[in-house]
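Data card: per-record layout.
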Amino acid sequence: MVTILIVEDDRMVRLLTKAKLSPQYSIREAANGQEALDVLDHEHIDLLIVDIQMPVMNGYELVRTLRESGDMTPVIMLTAMNTFAHKKEGFAAGVDDYMTKPIDYEELTWRIEAILRRAQIANEKRIVIGDFSMEQGTFSARYRDRTISLTNKEFQLLYKLLSYPNVVFTKQQLMDEIWGYDSETEYDTIKTYISRLRSKCAACTEFELTSIRGLGYRAVIRQPEGVQNET
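The structure for this 231-residue chain is written out next.
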């Protein structure tokens, strides 16, 4: 089971968050950043939920300490401090997401699942959706017992979209990341590659590549729920 560390000095908020999340996750608690570091020294933690304003060591200091030591455990900063400056400092420190109180626990769960999914994909370099799989290490894709032949760019484009299901990427974002900022490739190239991928993956019922008029493209997962790494 995924283990989440809640770092929050307000005991009531900490207990309520634990109660909301414990049906799905194993929960550990800490009242400040120093206590959190002590927990991390002795236990494996998959994700941290961190407040900012805490005694002894605040949330910013905790995240900076983790990142400076090379610890890339995902962190969601959950705080009442909601100004742009606070969010900027949080992301500069190295948080993966930032939510403000009052807490919408359903949204928090969505964000946790999205971050864990991305972390697993990054670590395993493998995407599995039902009978479809992609291996980043070998640039290979398979559906059931059949290999899907993809070019390097086709693989990168599909891997990007499937890593962030339901997220809309603009043509410019995809061009910059996959073809490079200095590329002279035209936007129509994206359309062509999406068309090729749809054709090559036509038998895959688990996902669909959809166009969002005026915006870009996204991958919609049909089944099973979400994108998971095989463990």
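Known properties of this structure: The radius of gyration is 20 Å. Residues 4 and 47 are 5 Å apart (CA to CA).

See the next section for split statistics.
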